[in-house]
Design a protein that fits this description.
The complex is a heterodimer of chains A (115) and B (114). Chain A has 115 residues and is mainly beta. Chain A is 0% helix and 48% strand. In chain A, β4 and β5 form a beta hairpin. The model of chain A has no long low-confidence stretch (mean pLDDT 93). Chain B is an all-beta fold and 114 residues long. Helix content of chain B is 0%, strand content 54%. Chain B is built from no helices and twelve strands. In chain B, the strands form three sheets. In chain B, strands 2, 5, 6, 10, 11 and 12 form a six-stranded mixed sheet that branches. In chain B, β10 and β11 form a beta hairpin. The model of chain B has no long low-confidence stretch (mean pLDDT 94). The chains are: A mainly beta (115), B mainly beta (114). The interface between A and B is medium-sized, with 27 and 27 residues.
Chain lengths: 115, 114
């Protein structure tokens, strides 16, 4: 079974430039998550999707961040414009359902460096 | 709201020694508890989780954890570590009966010395 796929793995951009990250979850997983992981910290949830619906985006900075999950499968997270403080690892995860005890399966992440 | 505190940011141990990584949580409701491991340049992988029932939970790679409700703790243990256990370990909680919203601790870096 293929795991969660993310691309690119690494991205270096200048500040004020746009950037996008792509995630393909495990087949059949209805719930998809985007997390932000700062250096030396645990992941923090940005947004959670149930199929194509964003059911929790309370932690997403909506002035510069946007996300979509068309057709309820893969997802894209965008930052426009990027700031120096956005340098971090962006993790995508998926789970079969959104029940509290479900295991989340994580992708390898995209490491963003903003210069 | 829930919060998680991992009491040690770094834990160095010698190979084949036992190890304990400490995790305390705060919540006004019952919770599910998780331990994830993150190897360098990889995503997080589930080690074990506590949902209900027996408070001693066994996971992969010889790890186990014990849920202590009175002390609001979920410490991770392994009786004999290997070089390959060198990684970052994260404790996490989610609300019992609620949606799957994980709240993570800051992580503990486990370093195994030969």
């Amino acid at each position: 079974e293929a795991g969660v796929v993310q691309s690119p793995r690494y991205k270096i951009i200048e500040k004020k430039q746009p950037v996008a990250f792509w995630c393909n979850p495990i087949s059949g997983h209805n719930t998809l998550y985007w997390y932000l992981q700062n250096l030396g910290q645990g992941p923090e949830l940005l947004i959670r999707y149930e199929n194509e619906e964003a059911v929790d985006d309370s932690q997403l900075p909506k002035d510069r961040f946007s996300a979509e999950r068309l057709k309820g499968v893969d997802s894209t997270l965008k930052i426009q414009p990027a700031e120096l403080g956005d340098s971090a690892v962006y993790l995508c995860a998926s789970s079969p359902d959104q029940r509290g005890g479900d295991t989340q399966y994580f992708g390898p992440g995209t490491r963003l460096t903003v210069l | 709201a829930q919060s998680v505190t991992q009491l040690d940011s770094q834990v160095p141990v010698f190979e084949e020694a036992p190890v304990e990584l400490r995790c305390n949580y705060s919540s006004s409701v019952s919770v599910y508890l998780f331990w994830y491991v993150q190897y360098p340049n990889q995503g997080l992988q589930l080690l074990l989780k506590y949902l209900s029932g027996s408070t001693l939970v066994k996971g992969i790679n010889g790890f186990e954890a014990e849920f202590n409700k009175s002390q609001t703790s979920f410490h991770l243990r392994k009786p004999s570590v290997h070089i390959s256990d060198t990684a970052e370990y994260f404790c996490a909680v989610s609300e019992y009966g609620g949606a799957q919203k994980l709240v993570f601790g800051q992580g503990t870096r486990l370093t195994i010395n030969p």
